[in-house]
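Appendix B. One record, verbatim.
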Amino acid sequence: MESITTDHLEHNIQQEDRAARRKILRNRVLAFITDLSIVGLLSKLTVISYIHFVELFLFYLYSDKQSAIRGRIWESESIVFSVMLIGYFLASYYTTDGQSIGKLIFNLKIRSKKHGQLSLSEAALRPVAYAFMLSLFPIVMLLPFITKSAKGIPDWFSKTEVVDINNMPPMQLDLFDLHTNTNLNKEENNVVPLRTTAVTAIGDDGPSQKDDQQNAA
């Protein structure tokens, strides 16, 4: 009877875990589409504004030269998009503690596996991985749907994870760091009594010498 109950509980836990992973994956896709739409809009506006700048301030050029300049600007749109992508996600993740506009809408957050809060390097490595995959191997973006851990290249590359704000798992403490901090605290506690004892001993010697001189007199 107990084994049946245990199996039933494990089955329920596994089902809840799968449902939570599916929810996070769905929200990750929607958040990423939202962020990509924002980046695409910003990059498009940047290119269009630069074309208008060329037409306004380089009006003295022949039309064929203006057309050539406009063509080169449109050809460089992918570069502008990549730069905007990295800048957008880096600024969002680092200044808002792991949230972009898309992740804010869908209650998601990027968290460091080491210390929770993102460092500058961790916040930069994720968008670099985004730009690399989108430009070379877009199909790799589907890895979280295939792997058992629901992790993708940006997660492994930056050593970060995506969590649901409404159901954030607790941080796992690093046992090595915990052991090191414990030893340091023990050493500090041992040093203080030694200094106190040394001061007390000096203080005790002083009065004893004065007493000896008074007795001798």
